[in-house]
Model the fold of this input.
Amino acid sequence: MFADRAKIYVKSGKGGDGHVSFRREKYVPNGGPDGGDGGNGGSVYFEVDEGLNTLTDFRHIRKYCAGNGENGGKRNCAGKNGEDIVIKVPEGTVIKEAESGQVITDMSGENRRFLLLGGGKGGNGNQHYATSTMQAPRYAQPGRPAQELELLLELKVIADVGLVGFPNVGKSTFLSKVTNARPKIANYHFTTLNPNLGVVDLEDAKGFVIADIPGLIEGASEGVGLGHEFLRHIERTKLIVHIVDAASTEGRDPIEDIYAINKELAAYNSEIAGRPQIIAANKIDMIYAEDDPVAKIKAEFEPKGIPVYPISAISGQGLRELLYDINNQLEKLDSSPVVFEQEFFPEDHFDTGSEPFTVEYDEKEDAYVVEGPRIEKMLSYTNLESEKGFKFFQDFLKDNGILEQLEALGIGEGDTVRMYGLSFDYYK
Done:
């Protein structure tokens, strides 16, 4: 079965601990510190794999962990870095934080590789803490902790045009006629469980990608049947084409069907329902009634600004006119792909505000020292080299009252602040 949704657990690697040791050689009785640094933990990356088109693999493997960094050793030996883990996903996969459902990243467009969780930085060995007043430091920095998240992966088809309509209205036949897709065609109510994509090539025109969204039923927006599984694939499309059975071969009213589908789209996502639409009145080769049903459909919807094209997917009648109008409408719309914006930022999530910290002045070092589990964890998931990461760091110091405590201790312009091997000059 086609898989377009999966829940997985990911974890980056812990940084290795720095080592405490001292040179011990025959003619060097009072050797200095030579503890090596711990290795960095492995990071978790997501990467687009062009050869994948489902999330099936994630139904069998649900836990993904990067390697831990090795601890430092004596004689300044650094620990080995932990191995990164690269998780391959099909293009169009949206990665969400599982509990909140908020988007972390969308693996679409130019986003081919994404760093989700950075590995914990390795701790400094005691060699870094030797000073003129403390020549034998017995302290080494512990490696920074791993980060972990539970994720929801959702595959949302990338297509310019989405075909919607009730089962057996001829969507699969239409797609097979106008594109290179070869969907299964049969007379039953769920002809496919996965969207079929095809490319429409037109003379003297750019062409476009079209997706057959499997047959909807009333109540789909509430999850009836496989409603949500189907509807999520239409979220990226710029234009919606309703295919209706104008001949009513199954006794359905095409006008009622169009309203029913629009109602489901609006209930699922009102923004989608407001996108441009075209109605393809199919099966005109099977119309034998005296009253022209196509004329009724046009009278109902064309005053609302929705064009109606009579077609026969089997004979090909009317297809050229419909395809060129679809292409013309697409040229008027924004050509950039629909990409979901980030809503969940892991660096904000990993702040543990309940854990302690201390702010003290070290007279020997002439430096202000900020330490504690909360500080250590904050540094482990904050990229201070990025503008956003450094702003988060500054806001953290302010929001947690650290700047206020430093000022209470008498810190002045240009004074040094030390946090687990990192040194900063204070400027207000």
About this structure: The longest strand covers residues 148-155. Confidence is low (pLDDT under 50) at residues 183-192, 223-227. The first helix runs from residue 171 to 178.
